[in-house]
Amino acid sequence: MSALPVEEPTNPFRTQHGGGPRTVTQLRAALTAASAADREEFEAQLGELDLDDPEEYAALVRSWRHRLVMRTRPEILAAVAASTDPAAPRFTSEEILGADGHQEASR
């Protein structure tokens, strides 16, 4: 047994608490590194915000942090590449979930 705390599994499709850009300046830098077009679009949307609506500001930052994760995480990029591979196996939802609606153990 280890005295270390049990680590929660991380979801590669979500920003983790304390992970990723934590300030608008960090978000701008990360967007610039990932895509200049994204940075420009972010700046345009930021410039249109009502400064008296903090929820609108928070929603914009959340959506752009999410977009950054979707465009930069290797696991996500690999999944997207695999989904466009014509040789990749294809499964119907019934094959995946089984006739009773539960996921098959063999998949």
How would you sum up this structure in a few lines?
This protein has 107 residues and is an all-alpha fold. It has helices at residues 24-34, 36-47, 54-72, 74-83, 93-97. The mean pLDDT is 80.
Task: Report what the structure shows.
- The chain is mainly α and 107 residues long.
- It is built from 5 helices and no strands.
- Helix 1 runs antiparallel to helix 2 and helix 1 (24-34) runs parallel beside helix 3 (54-72).
- It is extended.
- 7% of the residues are buried.
Features:
extended; mainly alpha; 107 residues; single chain
List the helices and strands and how they pair.
Elements: H1 24-34, H2 36-47, H3 54-72, H4 74-83, H5 93-97
Helix pairs in contact: 1-2, 1-3
Question: Distance between termini?
Answer: 31 Å
Number of helices: 5
Given as residue ranges, the uncertain stretches (5+ residues, pLDDT < 50) are: none
Q: SSE order in H/E notation?
A: HHHHH
Cα-atom radius of gyration: 19 Å
Sheet-strand content, in percent, reads under 5%
Average pLDDT for all residues: 80
Structural class: mainly alpha
What helical percentage do the residues reach?
A: 40-55%
Q: What is the 3D shape?
A: extended
Number of strands: 0
Major sheet details: none
